[in-house]
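Protocol step 4 of 6: structure prediction from sequence.
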Amino acid sequence: MKDTTSLGRRRLLKSAAAATGVAAGSGAITGFPTIWAQNIKNVVLKQFGTGVSNQNAIGDKVKQDLGFTLQMTALDSDAVTQRAVTQPKSYDIADIEYWICKKVFPAGVLQPMDTKKLKYYDKIVPIFTTGKMTPTSTIAQGTAPHTVGYVEGKNSTKFSSKPTEWFTMVPTIYNADTLGIRPDLVGRPITQWKDLLDPKFKGKASILNISSIGIMDAAMVCESAGLIKYKDKGNMTRPEIDKTIAVFTEAKKAGQFRAFWKTFDESVNLMASGEVVIQSMWSPAIAAVRAKGIPCVYQPLKEGYRAWGGGLGLAKHLSGLELDAAYEYINWYMSGWVGAYLNRQGYYSAVLDTAKQYMKPEEWDFWMEGKPAAIDIMSPEGKLMEKKGTTRDGGSFATRMGSVACWNAVMDEVKYMVRKWNEFIAA
């Protein structure tokens, strides 16, 4: 839905007028709709990030609603991190996760975002501003988004310990992750993270091979099994890293793992084929398996979830009309259509109020309230995802996000951790 507020329009028109040499005073500009239309259609914004949120339907809708072109490139998390820092002129908008932001923003390749220009800032889920679902919630371990959500000033690269007017990124998408299982093949109830290493599943288990995320799943497993008690799973010491890797290396040598996956499609194929019956998984991957008519469950576990969140950051070089278009895009992103599109895939949107307006009450009740589906639940593309009467794995938004044990993280010992993780994969 296009932002047509007078302030937003005046700001955008002012930039367009300046770009075309139209003389304008310092007062509010009204009019010049053709100037805006002529200039905006020539704007091309380059966005890159993971395939989770860089979806073609979003780019198509941007063109339809806003008139300019959004070019999207999807990469895996490690490639996203590298490109963000080493090729800053190759993109205008970085669609990155918060643990990646912790690595990227201090490099000075992104510009702080003015919260006063964000139309829906006050409606953003408080997880991203205070770190808490409710005022009494406990802040989870790891790189909680609010800890890297703000910087100290307009030109700062130093994270602020409290909210300021300068955002590092606008949050867009997040979820609470757990293990995926094939209930028809596991042969017993799965209730804890430690079940990933049960010898019963020898040769039929898998964990994702993205070190900064995989190590968190490994930590959830080790703590669940009573093998290690971490002070902070999201910021392990070297001895804790060594112990974690040793546990998983031993399991690997014993033949526990069928494969290590990096992409969404790999995880879907492993589970759909039955080669793997229990593994690290993402919610929409579960839905993709079920869409094939194959039983697959995103299993709630006693110890809680590992969460992640992503957002949109502005490249340092953006200015003028392109910068205004980027803010227009971000406000559009939070205005509801995209939020509903993501919610219908099993993700969560950062502004729930607007997304709700684009969903049927029955969809909202299923995805967000954890109620049994009153109708067949369809994907954004119109494919059957869940039949009438089913309930969402893990229940409501409040239950799932209220049971987060840790966030994806970047540790102080990240280089050491990556080296040890690679040794585990190569073992």
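Step 5 (inspection) to follow. The longest strand covers residues 170-181.
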